[in-house]
């Protein structure tokens, strides 16, 4: 077994164990492979291990990889900060965008999604533990945003995304409470099924709190080299 196969199996078994401890089915948690800074050949190798969903943070880098890997059936997720003037590429090239925290961004993504494409899957990013440096809307804004964004035509609003400070288990629990509370405000509540939380260091706690999608980079690909950024 190669290194990527090994690390992926290890992460999948951690997910499985966390699900068992919480009495959840293993299919209730999806693994998103966070591949920022890693070259497209590495993604191709990870794909060969069975991975289909990949998450990227930097638009230019992501667009190059999407181009280089267009022969593969990858589901591309954008998990970085969304800038207002960059929405067109996101709307056209990605299946999911996790970092939406304002109505104007969602409106632009809806308007720029191409007619022949399926609706763009969105998660609303919430600054769940009041960090100054973080993107994300305030918890108090979530209800209004869910009402508005879930009405947009070319958007499928799937749930919430949070990035709490390390070891803030309480923040995961707060995100789950908020996630459950606002479901009824959604115009199509059946689409509200995704709680995107948990990374390499805290995915087990995130799953225990109710995460349905863990975003894992380092534990799959090893340490990142940011010298190109
Ligand atoms: C980089 C990144 C991750 C992955 O972090 P690891 O600690 O390497 O697993 C997850 N989510 C977001 C939003 C990221 O930017």
Keywords summarizing the entry:
single chain, 229 residues, alpha/beta, 8-stranded parallel sheet, binds pyridoxal-5'-phosphate, Ala_racemase_N
Question: What is the overall silhouette?
Answer: globular
Rg over CA atoms: 17 Å
Q: Which ions, cofactors or small ligands are bound in this entry? A: pyridoxal-5'-phosphate
Helix vs. strand class:
alpha/beta
Strand content: 15-25%
Function: Pyridoxal 5'-phosphate (PLP)-binding protein, which is involved in PLP homeostasis.
Domain Alanine racemase N-terminal: 28-224
Keywords: Pyridoxal phosphate
Protein name: Pyridoxal phosphate homeostasis protein
Describe what you observe in this structure.
The protein has helices spanning 3-21, 40-48, 59-68, 87-93, 103-112, 142-149, 169-182, 203-209, 218-221, and strands at residues 30-34, 53-56, 75-78, 96-100, 120-125, 155-161, 194-196, 213-216. The chain is of the alpha/beta class and 229 residues long. Strands 7-6-5-4-3-2-1-8 form an 8-stranded parallel β-sheet. Strand 4, helix 5 and strand 5 (120-125) form a beta-alpha-beta unit. Helix 1 (3-21) runs parallel beside helix 8 (203-209) and helix 4 crosses helix 5 (103-112). The protein starts with a helix and ends in an 8-residue tail after the last helix. Pyridoxal-5'-phosphate is lined by residues 34, 36, 57, 79, 163, 199-201, 215-219.
Q: What's the helix and strand layout?
A:
Layout: H1 3-21, E1 30-34, H2 40-48, E2 53-56, H3 59-68, E3 75-78, H4 87-93, E4 96-100, H5 103-112, E5 120-125, H6 142-149, E6 155-161, H7 169-182, E7 194-196, H8 203-209, E8 213-216, H9 218-221
Helix pairs in contact: 1-8, 4-5
Bound molecules: pyridoxal-5'-phosphate (PLP).
């Amino acid at each position: 077994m190669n290194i990527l196969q090994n690390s992926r199996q290890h992460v999948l078994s951690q997910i499985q164990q966390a699900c068992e401890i919480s009495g959840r089915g293993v299919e209730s948690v999806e693994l998103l492979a966070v591949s920022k800074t890693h070259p497209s050949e590495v993604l191709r190798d990870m794909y060969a291990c069975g991975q289909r969903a990949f998450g990227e943070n930097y638009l230019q880098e992501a667009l190059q990889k999407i181009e280089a890997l267009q022969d593969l059936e990858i589901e591309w997720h954008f998990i970085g900060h969304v800038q207002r003037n960059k929405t067109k590429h996101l709307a056209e090239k990605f299946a999911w965008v996790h970092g939406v925290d304002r109505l104007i961004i969602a409106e632009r993504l809806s308007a720029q999604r191409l007619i022949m494409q399926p609706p763009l899957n969105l998660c609303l990013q919430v600054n769940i533990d009041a960090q100054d440096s973080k993107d994300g809307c305030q918890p108090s804004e979530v209800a209004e945003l869910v009402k508005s964004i879930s009405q947009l035509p070319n958007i499928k609003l799937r749930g919430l995304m949070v990035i709490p400070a390390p070891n803030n288990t309480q923040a995961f629990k707060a995100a789950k409470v908020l996630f459950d509370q606002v479901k009824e405000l959604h115009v199509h509540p059946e689409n509200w099924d995704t709680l995107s939380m948990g990374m390499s260091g805290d995915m087990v706690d995130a799953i225990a709190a109710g995460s349905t999608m863990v975003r894992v980079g380092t534990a799959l690909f090893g340490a990142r080299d940011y010298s190109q950024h």
